[in-house]
């Protein structure tokens, strides 16, 4: 990577590298991770459960209807991601104008502006109230998206594997269905934990 840098010492550390990313970009990436990774978890779970359910239903057709609840649990994981993505999207607004000087960076009006790279001297807003509020909101939305997305990914995998075992066990012994379903319900609660934490993390964030 050092060969790609324009000159020695161009980036003092990785923090400077992250500071070059637009806060709007970070927030949008967080929203994308929230919905994208959640859908990945749901698809993975449905694939795992569905393949076992279809195969076991050949020998035991009676399991087809009641084991669809496992597919519903997996689909709920994607719904969690959609809900959080919508909530995070409402915390962002279209930027209006750039602050023109250092004094404007600390005004309330400047909090409604866009990425603080001003024409010419891009450091006028560094360390200002404007910059601090913008970065706080951007990182809050970004990390909330990561939290929700990966929580739902692992939740979907958990529910999918448990649902697969539930279908196979039910095909062999119908009395095992309710017992394994309880385990599946506890597994589906893992995604809710991520949703709750994500909402709390982003509750004070607002990019305007």
Automatic annotation (TrEMBL):
One term of GO molecular function: proton-transporting ATPase activity, rotational mechanism
GO CC terms in record: proton-transporting V-type ATPase, V0 domain
Any Pfam family matching the protein: ATP-synt_C
Membrane topology annotation: Multi-pass membrane protein
Cellular location(s): Membrane
Membrane-spanning segments: 24-47, 68-88, 136-169, 181-207
Ranges where the V-ATPase proteolipid subunit C-like domain occurs: 29-88, 144-201
Keywords: Hydrogen ion transport, Ion transport, Membrane, Transmembrane, Transmembrane helix, Transport
Family as reported in the entry's similarity comment: Belongs to the V-ATPase proteolipid subunit family.
Protein name: V-ATPase proteolipid subunit C-like domain-containing protein
């Amino acid at each position: 990577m050092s060969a790609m840098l324009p000159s020695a010492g161009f980036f003092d550390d990785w923090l400077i590298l992250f500071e070059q990313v637009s806060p709007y970009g970070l927030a949008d990436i967080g929203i994308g991770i929230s919905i994208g990774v959640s859908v990945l978890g749901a698809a993975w779970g449905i694939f795992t459960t569905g393949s076992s359910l279809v195969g076991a239903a050949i020998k035991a057709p009676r399991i087809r209807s009641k084991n669809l609840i496992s597919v519903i649990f997996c689909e709920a994981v994607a719904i969690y991601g959609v809900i959080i993505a919508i909530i995070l999207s409402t915390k962002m607004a279209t930027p209006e104008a750039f602050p023109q000087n250092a004094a404007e960076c600390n005004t309330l009006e400047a909090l409604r502006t866009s990425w603080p790279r001003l024409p010419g001297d891009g450091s006028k807003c560094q360390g200002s109230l404007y910059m601090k509020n913008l970065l706080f909101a951007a990182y809050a939305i970004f990390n909330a998206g990561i939290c929700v997305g990966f929580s739902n990914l692992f939740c979907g995998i958990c529910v999918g594997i448990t649902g697969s075992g539930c279908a196979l066990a039910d095909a062999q012994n119908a009395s095992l269905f309710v017992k394994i379903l309880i385990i599946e319900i506890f597994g589906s609660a893992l995604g809710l934990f991520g949703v709750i934490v994500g909402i709390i993390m982003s509750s004070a964030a607002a990019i305007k």
